[in-house]
Amino acid sequence: MNESTYGEKEKVALAALKNEKHRRIISEILNSGQITHETLAEKIGVSAPTINWHIRHLKEEGIVRADADGRYAAYSIDRGYVELMHTVL
């Protein structure tokens, strides 16, 4: 029997954190609590389309949420992942 010591959330989080850009994005969002698309792109030093690509993946995994505020999206870490991300980062 090969029983993992990690649950599904931990596996998802660790897989996402293996990607350097994902790790930086998650870290920035975590430190900010909530951050806009433009600010995130600026802080990471990549283009808006690059942020879109990474955010889409992180949203599909359930790690990041996007709350639309008019024309702008504000990103935050899903409540289910906040504590875990603080632990592993």
User: Helical percent range?
Assistant: 55-70%
The value of Rg in angstroms is: 13 Å
Query: What order do the strands of the largest sheet run in, or round the barrel if closed?
Result: 1-3-2
Structural class: alpha+beta
Tell me which oligomeric state these chains represent: single chain
Query: Unreliable runs, pLDDT <50, ≥5 residues?
Result: none
The strand count comes to: 3
Question: SSE order in H/E notation?
Answer: HHEHHEEH
Largest sheet: 3 strands, antiparallel
Protein described:
With 89 residues, the chain is an alpha+beta fold. The protein has helices at residues 8-17, 20-32, 37-44, 48-60, 79-88, and strands spanning 35-36, 64-69, 72-77. It has a 3-stranded antiparallel β-sheet. A hairpin with a 2-residue loop joins β2 and β3 (72-77). α1 crosses α5.
Gist?
With 89 residues, the chain is an alpha+beta fold. The chain is 61% helix and 16% strand.
What characteristics describe this protein?
5 helices; globular; 3-stranded antiparallel β-sheet; alpha+beta
Layout: helices, strands, pairs:
Layout: H1 8-17, H2 20-32, E1 35-36, H3 37-44, H4 48-60, E2 64-69, E3 72-77, H5 79-88
Antiparallel strand pairs: 1-3, 2-3
